[in-house]
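pinging the channel bc i need a second pair of eyes. not urgent but kinda urgent?? the chain im working w is below, pasted from the shared doc
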Amino acid sequence: MSHPPLKEHTILNPAVTEDDFIDLSKILDSLKRNWLILFACIIAAMICAAILANILPSRWQASATMQIGQMPSPINAIIPIEEPVQAIERVKLRELQSSALTALKLPLDERVNMHTSLFKATINASAIKNTNFIQIKLAGFSPSEAEKNLAAAAQALIASHNTLVLPAKNRLTRQLQNNTKKTADAEAERKKLFQLLADSGSLKSTPQFAPNIVAISLLENKEAELRSLMVEKTSLQNLLESIAIYPTKIIDAVHADYRPYFPKLSLFLAAGAFLGLLLGLGIALWRDRKLF
C-alpha cells in the first residue's frame, strides 16, 4: 500500500515577531543623530581617566637575580639548598615576608599600612630556566623604596637558607672535630710505636723477633690510618668551604626602573575612551528609545 508523499512544512514560531529583532540600521541612525553626545562622552571619560592617572600614587618596580646556594647532603654530596621552585614558594610564605617587613620597620598588618599592603601585593618570584637562579620583583612608591623592599626580601631569603644550612654545617664541624681527635690519637700511638722500634734497634736492622714484627705492622697500620684521616679531613674542609663559597646571594644588582609601571597613562586613556563610548551609546539609545 503506497502512502502519499509527505509535504514540506515550514515550522513557524508564533511567539517570534519582527519586533523581536534589533534593526542595526536604526542603531546606526541613532548614533549619527547623537554623534556629538557620543564624542563628548568619550572626551569627558578620557579627561577623567587622565586626572585619575595623575591622582593615583605612582609605583616603581625593582628586580634582582638570586643564585640558590649549595650545601652538603647527609652523604656529603653537594646539592642545592633547595630547588628554585621551592625557593619561589618560600618567598610567598608569611614568615619570610614578616621577617622582611620587620627589617623595614613596617607593620605586619597590610590593613593598617599602605606600604605593607603594596609589599605583600607585589612580591613575586620566578625561576630562570635551566639554572639555579630565581628573579624576585617587588614594588614601592618610589624607586628607592622599591629597591629597599627588594633588598629586605632578598636578605630574608638568604637568612632562611642559612638556617637550612646550619644543621649540615654543624654536622660537618662535629665530624671535623672528631677527625682531629682521631688524628691526634693516631699520631700519638704512631710516635710510641716508632719510639719502641727505635729503642729496640729494629729500625736499623732486619727484625727477627715476633714482637718487633708486630710493632712494625702496627706502625704501618697507623700510618695508613693517618693517611685516611688526612683525606677525610681534606674532604670535610672542602665541604665546609663550599657552604661559604656557594651561599644564596644576589648575583645581579637590585635595580628599579626609572619610570613607574603604574599608572600607565596610555592604558587609562584607552579604558576611558572605551567606557565613554559605552556611556555615549547608552545615552544615544535612551534618547531614541521610542524609535526601537
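so Residues 140 and 146 are 4 Å apart (CA to CA). and The helical segments are 24-33, 35-55, 84-91, 94-103, 114-122, 143-200, 210-245, 265-287. — does that match what u expected or am i reading it wrong
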